[in-house]
Structure prediction request, 355 residues.
Amino acid sequence: MAHPLSRLATRVAYASRQLPRMAWYAGHLYVMRRLAEQVRQREGESARPKPRSDPRIDERLNADRAALIEQDLANVEAGIYPLPVDHDGSLLTLLDRSRMFFRDLPDIDKRRKRNATREVLNARTRGRRPDYYLQNFHFQSGGWLTEDSADRYDTQVEVLFRGTANAMRRQALPPLTEAFAGRDQRKLRLIDIGCGTGRFLDCVKQVWPRLPTLGIDLSQAYIRHARRHLRRWSRIHLIVGNAEAIPAPDNSCDAVTSIFMMHELPPEVRRTVIGEAARVLKPGGRLILIDSLQRGDQPDYDGMLERFPQYYHEPYYSTYLGEDFPAIARGCGLAHRRDTAAFLSKVMVFDKEDR
Ligand SMILES: C[S@@+](CC[C@H](N)C(=O)[O-])C[C@H]1O[C@@H](n2cnc3c(N)ncnc32)[C@H](O)[C@@H]1O
Prediction:
């Protein structure tokens, strides 16, 4: 049991890092909503009725966000991971990212009004990536394809979740700790599929700096960003690749993770990707998925989840909401261990059966 003073010091250190960060991104959300309101008023209120927020849902969201932060801190206090460092960059970087975020909002808004979802599908990109991938997900400029998109991505995600996206990602660390318990990290191997800009791998490396890890993503720009972001770590390999064909031998790896990617995939691709994860896992290896809550997980949120894809272009989210992950996994030889809610996300844990 930690000394009360050291416990207090941990709590103060945690709060001094996480609370300003949450306030920073919540502030962005507030300003973004005010700007949207001004646009609505300029265009005439009737043009687009303001989505009404339900005070009971807002209360639930606040309570669930607080529960996530409590859990994140409890994990630190239990020694599952050290005090997290988010590596958001210097104040100048933060301000620059903030400027990029706000400068892009009018373009996102225009795309949303025109329902322009396929700007990134053109003669240059066609056939070079799967068709389902070549879309302006979230109506974002450049889809997944540009350096600017990669540089804006983490601000966009943190604003959406008011600075808790990394805390949600960290909830994959307790089930990884269980899987790695008592084993030499240098002899294990983890693959993160759809690793994006590398924020989850950063969380992993803070716990297991000598763990050989591979990050795969279909976006060259996001992989380039991830390489820059993760350059402080060794034994990390980042490659452009398709999770439908993971470049690793059968039964070669101890853990596969995928964070916030499943909802971006068409149903048949989800099945292929989970099958690939099962293929590369060693018997007894662990697959951890973190993604949005699904329909029925928290019935109060169902309406909000159903509306989400209309506002943020999310072509596969509706099918995601009803997807039966334990059944898909079972079909691939993975046993479902548990689901744990983490604010608006859930952590799904599966183990490859010994056959
Ligand atoms: C919502 S982002 C999540 C990124 C990251 N895991 C995170 O924690 O923020 C989805 C990512 O999945 C990648 N992606 C989508 N389809 C993919 C595929 N078939 N193979 C590899 N990456 C893919 C995208 O390029 C994007 O970086």
